[in-house]
Design brief:
With 71 residues, this protein is mostly helical. Helices cover 49% and strands 0% of the residues.
Length: 71
């Protein structure tokens, strides 16, 4: 008698890996999750570029304030 392999979604939720849980989601939900992750990444890159332009890095070893005490 051939043994049947149970589908991934038939396993208890606690026993599933993250990949199995992701694959058990409906295709449209997986699409929405993937689009959300890509959108967050793209927005993060644009925000990072904006902040780099707004607050440029100072060269190493040069301070922008006078650290000597006033006479």
């Amino acid at each position: 008698m051939a043994s049947k392999k149970t589908p991934q979604s038939a396993e208890p939720v606690v026993a599933r890996s993250l990949w199995q849980s992701y694959k058990a989601l409906p295709a449209r939900t997986r699409l929405y999750v993937s689009m959300a992750v890509c959108t967050v990444g793209a927005v993060g890159m644009f925000v990072s570029d904006y902040l780099e332009d707004k607050y440029p890095a100072t060269p190493q070893g040069i301070t922008t304030y006078d650290s000597r005490p006033a006479p």
